[in-house]
Amino acid sequence: MIDCSAQVIYWRAAASIAWAVLLLPPFTAAFVLFSRFSLFHPIQTLSECLAFLTSASAIFSLILLSGVMVILGFLNLEYYTVVPTIACSKIELLGQLLHPRQLANSLICCIMGVIVAWCCAITTGSRYDTLGSIDTSQMCLNEYHLILLLGGAFVGLSHSLLGVIHNMNYVSFNTVQQYKYLCVKGSLTTVVKCSATQALYSVRSFIIVYFFFGYIPKAWILWTVSVHPLDSIAGLFNLSLVYHLWISASFLLSTWHFTLLLFRIYVTEVYNFPVQSSFTEDVQQCLPKVLSEKQPVILKFMALQDLALLSQHSPSRRCEVFSLSQPGGHPHNWNAISGECLSLLTELNQRLVSYHDSVATNGRAKSLSTASERKTSSETSGEIFILLPLTAPFTPDLDSPFTSPTLRRLTTPAEQCSPWSGTLQSPHVMRRGVKLWSTPTGEGGTNHHYFILYVTLGIKFTLEVRTFGLVLMSIWLRFKTWFGVKGFLAKRVLIMYLFNKLPEASSQALFADSQAHIWALEGLSCLVQASFSEDQFGVVQTTLPSILSCMLTLQEAVDRHFKLPHASSKPVRSSSSMEDSTHKTLRFALRATLKTAIYRITTTFRDHLKAVQLSPEHQKRLQQFLEYKE
User: Fold this and answer.
1) What transmembrane ranges does the database entry give (predicted)?
2) Residue 134: beta bridge partners?
3) What is the pLDDT of residues 30-66, one digit of tens each?
4) Is 140 helix (H, G, I), strand (E, B) or coil?
5) Which of 229, 304, 386, 477 has a CA 20 to 30 Å removed from the CA of 199?
6) How far, in Å, CA of 630 to CA of 615, rounded?
């Protein structure tokens, strides 16, 4: 069963689809006028346009276009998000484009683009209305109509791909609240301008693609339908053809972008959640429950937006937040709201700390691992050269120039006056050697000589076994260094282009959902400020130390983040697309909101904050806010 709060999203999406369908006839009438307009016969053009708009073909085209608008509205509802997916590298972006869900979206957009292009061809009439034409008593292919259909498919595909690249499915909440009519009126000019500009680039790209690969669909149609080619186009740079391609693409993108605009406006409209309810069945729809329990992300954002607005503009609802439960006298509303806000801020702080630690650790670990590899390689390589002569038979050739000096010393009979000569310094061998080496020379001395050799080789064999693991590790490290995948791929320019991190992408991804933290900061700080005069029971005072500590800790983490490269550089906003670039500047908005929230509390309580139990570091930082030095 769908929650009543969640049903609001579906009703709003349905309302945006309905308005998109109702406003489709004006867009269609404008397209008919521009596609049939003649500068030398304006009155005749108007009469022809009026006659066409009342014809059966125009009504059928409107029905098809309305179906396309409904499908597009459902796609907006299915693919929208309030937390954008930011690709930190080209390979991640490529993975998003090739995702099966995105491939299905691209296929649907291609089919809808063909349908819209067919309606545009019927509307334009003349030589664009049919795929085949009769010439010299035989059916021939009308390439004008084919180019319009392929152009529609190409524009639909590019619209789907650009939607992933520019995060056009991202829905942001407006900072300034306006009526829906004013929002639509103010954005209509931007929609038409962006659509015309994007259509121009799409037509340019389509002409290039069709010039090289247009023979493939043309040959397939000629072979399938058994028609003859008709080379009636003077060239792809025919101005009339290019104009109709551009006007058709502009009409397609204008209607699709307008549907997206209506969806954004309706879904992000402010929704007032009740703070508390006397009925048990309505408790799940109250603001504390929506914030504290698991809900769709869009509902969480709407609840936090409502919290930020009520904390600033609704004294009566603030009193409900500060109220105590009856019976029992517990501040359940305040505990739930403040607890969820503090949990959000703590999660962001932990995320920032983990990111900074990973950046610092990666920088140090690389140098340490490199040094350890060199040290291990040098040590184990030295052991390898020492051990190699000892793997010979038990009676090595001591006169050979390749015999190591160590083996010569070990196999030479030790003098009684110097029983400790050689490289072996084990005390057990020393004690045992005093008794054995005191025997007289002769046949017993020869056996004694072989006994020493066997003991020595046994000990070195034990050392060989001990260092065998180090030898294998050295070989593996050398293999990894010489033939490692990372080093191999690093020499390829294309691979480096795909795997290199994009500037600012990591920072943008880190703050992708910071709109929720901004509302949490505004709601908490405004409620704390209002509690100075409105909190009759002092429920806020119990959590004031944890609120201040959380904010000061978060500010320290944010300030540390802005010292990293690319974190403080502001991106350039694009005005030639429907991209919502709000997520690119969320980190700057969060930093400003965080500082404002702390100042809002310090300017209200001032010297009373000295009685709040804080750590010495936080007290020192809070004193800077009290002295306006931050």
Assistant:
1) 17-37, 49-75, 103-123, 144-165, 207-230, 242-267
2) 139
3) 999 998 887 777 888 888 889 888 899 899 999 999 9
4) strand
5) 229
6) 19
Cβ–Cβ under 8 Å, residues 160 and 171: no
Could you give the count of Cα atoms lying within 13 Å of 437 in the half-sphere of its Cβ?
17
DSSP label of 570 = P
Any residues with CB less than 8 A from the CB of 510 and at least 6 apart, and which? Answer: 351, 352, 355, 561, 587
Give the DSSP letter string of 466-495.
HHHHHHHHHHHHHHHHHH-HHHHHHT-HHH
pLDDT tens-digit map of 226-239: 555 544 445 566 78
Among 164-178, 226-240, 410-424, 493-507, name the most confident range: 164-178
For the record, the structure tokens of 332 come out as: 């359940």
Whether the CA torsion 471, 477, 481, 484 is positive or negative: it is positive
Give the integer Cα–Cα distance in Å for 508 and 18. 35
Phi, psi torsion values for 71, nearest 5 degrees: -65, -40
- Which residue's structure tokens are 């009526």? 179
The closest of 240, 196, 237 to 38, measured between CA atoms, is 240
Measured CA to CA in angstroms, residue 370 lies from 367, 380, 478, 543 at distances of 5, 15, 12, 49
Contacts of the segment 465-473: beta carbons below 8 A, 24+ positions apart: 467/380, 467/383, 467/387, 470/376, 470/379, 470/380, 470/383, 471/380, 471/383, 471/384, 473/376, 473/380
Cα 548 from Cα 453, distance rounded (Å): 76
Instruction: Please enumerate in sequence order all residues whose Cβ is within 8 A of that of 27, keeping only pairs 6 or more positions apart, or say none.
Output: 251, 254, 255, 258
Residue 387, CB-side half-sphere exposure with 13 Å CA sphere = 19
Look at residues 76, 105, 103 and name the one whose alpha carbon lies nearest to residue 13: 76
Inter-residue contact 522 to 597 (CB < 8 Å): yes
Query: Are 32 and 53 a contacting pair, CB within 8 Å?
Result: yes
Element (H, E) at 111: helix 100-124
Read off the pTM.
0.77
588 DSSP 8-state letter? H
Name beta bridge partners: 138: 135
According to the model, what pLDDT value does residue 52 have?
87
**Which of 56-70, 117-131, 419-433, 502-516 is the least confident region?**
419-433
Token digits for 544? 């004031």
Helix (H, G, I), strand (E, B) or coil at 501: strand
